[in-house]
Structure formats: structure tokens, C-alpha cells
Amino acid sequence: xxxxxxxxxxxxxxxxxxxxxxxxxxxxxxxxxxxxxxxxxxxxxxxxxxxxxxxxxxxxxxxxxxxxxxxxxxxxxxxxxxxxxxxxxxxxxxxxxxxxxxxxxxxxxxxxxxxxxxxxxxxxxxxxxxxxxxxxxxxxxxxxxxxxxxxxxxxxxxxxxxxxxxxxxxxxxxxxxxxxxxxxxxxxxxxxxxxxxxxxxxxxxxxxxxxxxxxxxxxxxxxxxxxxxxxxxxxxxxxxxxxxxxxxxxxxxxxxxxxxxxxxxxxxxxxxxxxxxxxxxxxxxxxxxxxxxxxxxxxxxxxxxxxxxxxxxxxxxxxxxxxxxxxxxxxxxxxxxxxxxxxxxxxxxxxxxxxxxxxxxxxxxxxxxxxxxxxxxxxxxxxxxxxxxxxxxxxxxxxxxxxxxxxxxxxxxxxxxxxxxxxxxxxxxxxxxxxxxxxxxxxxxxxxxxxxxxxxxxxxxxxxxxxxxxxxxxxxxxxxxxxxxxxxxxxxxxxxxxxxxxxxxxxxxxxxxxxxxxxxxxxxxxxxxxxxxxxxxxxxxxxxxxxxxxxxxxxxxxxxxxxxxxxxxxxxxxxxxxxxxxxxxxxxxxxxxxxxxxx
Length: 599
What we know:
The protein is of the alpha/beta class. Helix content is about 35%, strand content about 15%.
């Protein structure tokens, strides 16, 4: 006992040091985790014991001790040390709970894409990611933690397949490295992290697509029209297989459609895509497309400058048409990528859900034509992609590439627009048709197939110059029209003229519908789909049309750009000599020279 008392008198003054150490360890652990663990409570208890021992030592030596100058100096040092430790603890706690990072990588590979952020933030019920892997990757863990920051409904768990066989059976895990998403009663395979014995990183693209699929209640049906020289759905450079694959990864069903051989447009079509036709549509196909839009169908029309698809009668009731001239870019932005002026680079977008979040991004539209719009009752047109002041559209490219103000269209003007038709819901239309069977043709007239759009070139509300859509009807059709029997009788001719005038007016009884018109089809091909935001514009357009989404659609995740440098043997040898011999010798020589000078 006497020995313990002697040790206490000698070393009791240092008891505050372990008190501080154990106190910080227990306090930080409790504050960060929020778990009342016996270990954390034990550390805090030990800190209290050491603090009491130190206070006892101070009490025993209190006679004259507290009034000494050395005591006051020591107390100031201790108080300052404790204040610094408390401040550091608070800074670390705040940094842990509210982390702030700066991602300076080219493709923002350490930052979730806007679409990933919005999908997770809008989760209505818990979603959990299961990773069946015996060697969890810290990179995958960080990616999942990034998702978790945007919603309390998101969680994840790494599972050792050999230790939890019941869970493996429930998810029907086939291979080690399988990743699943569980949302409600849905269990969906996302990715396998082991491919040919090579470990891959968890893909944000695949995980975000899986989350989007899991949240879908129904599968949208998208049809690509074929039979008129449209872009093929295969994987050749001029095909659209990349776009089709991206849609399927989002949980969208994609099918080809021949309007003639398939007997019209299927009733389950949520949207129809007309991508780059080079031949004219037949009259029955035009009627089918008109009926589809009249019944509330949604269209995505993409036509290149050199094409004449004969879709004027489908587009005219919407107040939209194509200008045949080719857009030329004089800004020189394309030269950075080795592109010529016929491949413009756009960075001006309209305030629309499809492009609202694209500000600051670029789109590359090869061989694009202007899109003309005019006001129509019940039709709202919104700019998607707009040409700049340094662009113009021409039919004859001069050698010096300078525009002719008399024949060319000077920017700004639209090259992609979105249109929305206001109207009654389908149920209201059916009720009206039922109560007015005798006047059904007047209520829902079919557009006259010989009318072509002639939008005026007046500026729109946003100040852009609108091109004039050129009439492309053949002269034979006009002649046939003049020789029709109706022209033989003056009264019949007047009646027909009145009927045509009525047909041109939008029908207020038609249900709501949407349309997206783009003056280029090449931007969505395999060669250009993954460039800039081309793919995002296409996917957002289809999603807006097919799923009736009115909130802003964001940018999607991109695969990181491969920036590896492949050195030849000669260059690798030179780099090795520079690293291991020349640079160290220069440093050693400078050190010897400095030593010699100081002598």
C-alpha cells in the first residue's frame, strides 16, 4: 500500500493525459457512430477514473499549490490543449457527417451523374444493393456510399457467399461477384464483378439503369419505323444499336415496325421513332401516322438535310417543318476535335425537361438542318437545341464558307424542338364521339394529305430566326388535284375549299400528345451516340415522350476515358534512365556543388 501511495504521489500529476486520451477515443466513437457500445462506454469510464485520480492528486497538494505561478501556467497550457483538441474533434465530426469534395477528373468519375442523384433522391421505398463477394472492393464501397448520401432509402451490404447460403439461395446467385438490387418484391441482377477471373469495378451506369428498371411499374413500348431507308438497328457505324441498347438497359422495350406489313401502328406504342428515312412514306403510312398522333400518340422525328420523307402532312398540323438547307459552323469550335464546319457543335439549349440540365455541355450534330415552327392553336413549341450567331444554313457552300445574307439563313435558329398538344383526355374524346356519332367526321377530321406546311419566317418568342419550311409536293399531285371531279362544279369546289380550311385548323377535341423534331439523324448513330451529350438528348427525348415525364431529365453517367499511354521500347528506356539515373545524378551534383561552395 505504501508503495502504491508513493507511485501515486510521484506520477499522479500525469493522470490527466490518459484521461484526455481515453475520453477523446470514447467520445468521438460515441458521437460518430451513435452506438452505445460497451467498448465505447468502457473507454469513457476509464477516462473518468483517471480524471478523478488526477483531481485527487491535486487536492492532496492543494495547500499553496493552486496559487503558484507554475500551476497557473500549467492550467493555461492544459486549457489551451483541450480547446484545440475539442476544435479538431468538431472539425473531424463535421467533415465526416457533411463531406465536401472536388472532382477534377475529366468525366467526373468520382461524382455521381445527375440522373443517378435524382433517381436515388426520389426513392419512394427502401432500395438495397447486395454484393455477393468474398473480397469487397474499397472503390465499390465508396461508389455505394456516394449513392447513400442522396437518400436514407438507399442501403447496401457486402455478403460472403459461403457464410450466408440461405441468402444466396433466395437471390439465386449463380456466380461469385453477382450484384443485385432489391426494391420491394423485385430482385434484379445488376452486374457480375468477376469476368474471366478478372475483377471489374462496380459500374455506375449499370447500377443506375438497374435502379431505374426496379422503379418502373410498366415497360414502355418504343417502335423504330423501318422500310424507308431508316437507320438500321444493327451495330454498324451508321446504325443505332447503341441507342437501342441504352433504351433496353433503362427497361424500355424496343421493336422495329414496318407500318405496311405490320398492319399499322400497334395500340401499345408509347412512342414511335422515325430515324433518318431516305425515301418517301406511302399514303397509307401517312394516314396511319396521322391517326396515331390524333389518338394521342407520340413521335420522335429525325431527318437529315438531304432526305425528303414526305412527312409534311404529319408535321403541318403541329406547325413544324424542315428547312432543306445545311447548317455551317463558323465558330471554329469543331477544329479542336478535327471536325469540319458541316459538323456543328451546339451549346445553347432551351428551357425544357429534355435539355434543362445541359447548360455548359456540348452536343455534336453532323449534317443538321434547321427546324421551322409557327404558332398553332393548342400547340406549344419549345426550343431544345439552338444554333448560335456564328452559324448559318445554306444550300450552296462557298469556297470561303462565308454566308450570303440574301439566300442563306443566319443564326440563331432552332435545330431541334419539342412540341406539346393540349387537348382533352382520351376518355373525354370517346364520350364526345359517342354523343355525336352523326358528326364524327367533323369532330375528328383527317388532315388533307396534299397540304404542306408553310411556316412564316417570323422570329419566335425567344428571338430566334425561324426558317421557312419548303413545300415539297410533286407537280403531278397538284395537277391531279386540279383535274378532280370536284373542280367541275363551282359549288362543290367551294365546299371542298371550306372543308380543307377546316381540316387545317387544330381540333380541340383531340387528346394531348407530344412530338420531338430534330434536323439530324446522324447524331444518334453508333459513331456519334456516345459523343458529348448526344446520347442524353436522344434518351431524354424518348423518355419524355414515352413516360410522360415533365420534371427535368439529367445527364447520365459516362464511362471514364481511357488515358493510358502506351510507350514503345525506346521511349520506355529513355524514361527509365531519366527517372533512375539522370535526375538523381543532377540532384547529387547540386548537393556536392552546394557543399563545395560552403567550404
